[in-house]
Amino acid sequence: MSTAAPRLLLLLGQSPFDPTSGAAQSTRIIAEILARTGFDVRSLATTACEGDPPGGHDLVLADSPISFLPGNNATILRLHSRGIDHSLVVVDATWRHEWVRHVGPRFDAAYADILQTWQPDIVLTYGGDRADLARRKLARAAGAKVVFALHNLAYRKQPPAEVNHILVPTQYLANAYRGVLETAITVLPPPLDPERVLATQREPQAVGFINPEPAKGATIAAQLADRLGRERPEVPLLVIGGRVPPEALAVAGRDINLDLTKYPNLLECPATARVKDVWAALRVVLMPSVVREAAGRCALEAMLNGVVPLVSNQGGLAEIVGDAGVRLPAPPPLEGRARRVPQSLVDVWWRALVNAFDDYPTGPRAAACRIHAERFTVDALSPAYDRWFRSLLTRS
């Protein structure tokens, strides 16, 4: 019987270090958990990011615990981080969404070499285009088990094919795919790495709002920002970029005839890999998602730091925060034309925001958030992930 460490390949079409993608971060941390529990782990990915992190991917890596490996060149970065040897095919940021057309052959050549010479036992991946499907098919033909990390609701009309197992972060997401997927679904919560997200020195003075997209509730956030500027100008509102830049909140305000630029307490921060610096500054984070989120990684990161999340009471986001977070009625669904959220609903969010901010830190909510989030750290979740992935090796 072989005693060699089981081999797992993390296969992504974007950077596993992408600070603007919760899916990439969660999947990478899963791979890091397995590396620390005795798996031999490698990754093949690209340097593409969903958003535009300031300074590009080089600065993203500068904020990560990495060491470069021999063999780096202008087309492939080879580096080691948290027990994983990464090979990242370099993608120009201007065509990050079309990287297959530009560097697809180079990526596939590296992938074919890994399948032939290293022969992974498990491939952990996600992606819905034809190239992703072809790569999963090759992995299964080479004898690897394919685990598809499902992080959103985009596959309900066209379920992912050529997979052996599907992994989801919330029971809500599993229920949403019940009756749609033939492949069995396993729920394992999204893991947090305290070394990356836990602030060591906190000066919580602000309210935060992350990734000001319409789907994230930018309209109600704009109305709350306007009210903060008028009634509580001493309270800073820090808007953090994600897939869209932070100035998108001011645009959302302008669409409903609110000029947020006149308020000096409205602050902006671009997307950053140093999220612990963001959490260090916040007491409360607004998450008024209009859509039903699959999970809520940012909410858990906030809670681990004692930041109180105010979330829409629906989907995986409400499930993730549990009773420790503040769950509020969701804003109305998106429409073709920007409209203000009804004032009665804004009032509900406003009262919750003011109460959570003013109660901090003497109120019990911050401590409850920390205790809740500690169940999601890599130390807490490592045994479950290790046990489940090892069980795949013996399944037919």
Description:
Helix content is 37%, strand content 17%. The protein is α/β, with parallel strands linked by helices. The chain folds into 2 domains: 7-191 and 378-392, 3-Layer(aba) Sandwich (Rossmann fold); 194-375, Rossmann fold, CATH 3.40.50.2000. Strands 3-4-5-2-1-6-7-8-9 form a 9-stranded mixed beta sheet, with helices on both faces. Helix 5 (171-176) links the parallel strand 8 and strand 9. The longest helix has 20 residues, at 99-118. The two termini are 17 Å apart.
List the helices and strands and how they pair.
Blueprint: E1 7-11, H1 22-36, E2 40-46, H2 57-62, E3 67-68, E4 76-81, E5 84-89, H3 99-118, E6 122-125, H4 130-141, E7 145-149, E8 165-168, H5 171-176, E9 185-187, H6 194-197, E10 206-210, H7 218-231, E11 237-240, H8 248-255, E12 266-269, H9 275-280, E13 282-287, H10 297-304, E14 308-312, H11 315-321, E15 326-328, H12 343-359, H13 365-373, H14 378-392
Helix pairs in contact: 1-14, 3-4, 7-8, 10-13
Gist of the model:
With 396 residues, this protein is of the alpha/beta class. It is built from 14 helices and 15 strands. It folds into 2 domains: 7-191 and 378-392, Glycogen Phosphorylase B (Rossmann fold, 3-Layer(aba) Sandwich); 194-375, 3-Layer(aba) Sandwich (Rossmann fold), CATH 3.40.50.
CATH superfamily of the largest domain, please?
Glycogen Phosphorylase B
> Rounded to an integer, what's the Rg over CA atoms?
21 Å
Fraction in helix: 25-40%
CATH class of the largest domain: Alpha Beta
CATH architecture of the largest domain: 3-Layer(aba) Sandwich
User: What is the name of the CATH topology of the largest domain?
Assistant: Rossmann fold
Average pLDDT over all residues? 93
How many E-type strands?
15
Low-confidence stretches: none
Output the structural class: alpha/beta
Q: Order the strands across the largest sheet as they lie in space.
A: 3-4-5-2-1-6-7-8-9
How many helices does DSSP assign?
14
Biggest pleated sheet: 9 strands, mixed
3D shape: globular
The structural domain count equals: 2
Question: What is the N-to-C order of secondary-structure elements (H for helix, E for strand)?
Answer: EHEHEEEHEHEEHEHEHEHEHEHEHEHHH
Percentage of residues in DSSP E strands: 15-25%
Alpha carbon gap, first and last residue: 17 Å
